[in-house]
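Collaborator request log, item 7. Partner lab (contact: R.S.) asked for a structural prediction of diguanylate cyclase to inform their binding assays.
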Amino acid sequence: MLLFLLFISLFIVTACSWALWKSWQDRLQDISIQARNQSLSLSRQAQDTFLQVSIALDEIARQREALFSRPASYSGSRGILAGLSVPLPQLAGLFVYDKAGNCLATSRGSVDPQMNNADREYFIWHRDHANPGVHIGHVVNSRSTDERVIPVSLRLNDADGNFNGVALGTVKVSFFRQFYGWYEQMPGDLLALMNTDGLLLYARPFPDSVINRSLSSSPLFTTLLSQSRIGSATWKSRLDGKERLFGYARLERYPLVVAVGYETRAIRHGWWMSNITAISVNVFTWLLVLLFGFQILRQLRANRLSQQALMRSQDELKRLNGTLSDLAMLDGLTGLGNRRQFDFYLEKSLNGAMTPVSLIMFDVDYFKRYNDAYGHIAGDRCLQAVAAVLKHLPLRSTDRVTRYGGEEFAIILPGTEARDAEKVAFRALEAIRRAALPHEASELPEKIVTLSAGIGASVPGGTPDALKLAADEALYTAKKSGRNCIAGMQGICLL
Ligand SMILES: Nc1nc2c(ncn2[C@@H]2O[C@H](COP(=O)(O)OP(=O)(O)OP(=O)(O)O)[C@@H](O)[C@H]2O)c(=O)[nH]1
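Returned to partner:
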């Protein structure tokens, strides 16, 4: 039962642990897929955002000669640049700078003659790099609107391929703030747009003060991006030190990367809350099984104890029964077998006997007189003395001495012929005589207790009654013949 309980407990604990572990792994996998998909869709949105600006910049580059010769027609609210920026809500403005960094044209009204952006990172980059591609710089505060913008720029060359200026589109950080704001977030969730050098362009739900922070020490930039453009992994965020399960996707066209992170503590909490009922039910079931098991165990133990007690009392009862039946077969005065034992043993000895069974019946002579002379108590002692003498006769183990009743005794001799029974009777009478128990009231000259004996022997198929009758008649003969003698099949033998 204990082994069974142990097995059941082990089974329940193992099965539940496995189910919980599996459900946790499934939850992690679901969230990792969700994070990867979301980062992929955000990367697509970012790519489209910058691609649209890039197309506008390409258009400016295509028209650069006209622009440099007639910059006024490009500027202003009705200028060509304004026309290009109208369908692009992400744009803060379009600008064109000459090779000295002076503003030639802008989509935002009139040109400020003082405005010079030669010190800007993107301007210096294009001046120093002949790279014809679009450059996305770090977040700056717009000098025209003072809003935070991401500069997207393109180098403009003259006919000889020399640096001749820069076309700039500024993408509003607020555009991403608004777009990312549409996503429903749980506390601890994170959305971030970064360049591939690890510079943060925007992160939700963090304040703008984190913009331009370098996250290059994050595993995303040290290992993961070099292994795969899209993926998911768990790491500690460099922004707030919280561990998150991240999905990330690098843009195909631009050196930008988007990451979506879910705080693992919140995931664990959510998973725990949705499994708490199942866990409680399992623990409760387990406790119930244990309770029932121990109850049954206790019952079994009690049953075993009561069975043992029952067996002990049965043994005791058997022993007492044995004692009782022994007592029922014994004569209380003399300790010899009683009349019941006599009948039982005689029947048993005759039953199917192949050899003769002899029976000697003894009767104490003149015992009434003894009682009268010495009293009944002395009479009892006399009977006890006679019994003791008969008990100590040298007999075979199959012979049985009993008190037949009153002052009569009997010896049953299985497998004994009458002739041999006479010898036994002779020894018995001799032994009594030798005991010389005084009997002053006896009519016999010796004045001691004497016995008369009658011997009967069974014939094949003889019954107990027939044998008793034969012995009894012989005893009667012995009495008639003067007592202190033996009467049997072969006549009377006087001592
Ligand atoms: N003290 C005592 N006397 C007993 C007991 N059983 C029988 N008696 C007595 O034994 C006597 C037997 O007497 P009787 O049958 O007349 O025979 P008897 O006096 O021995 O004479 P015979 O047998 O003819 O020699 C009776 O007085 C019984 O009361 C016993 O257990 N104790």
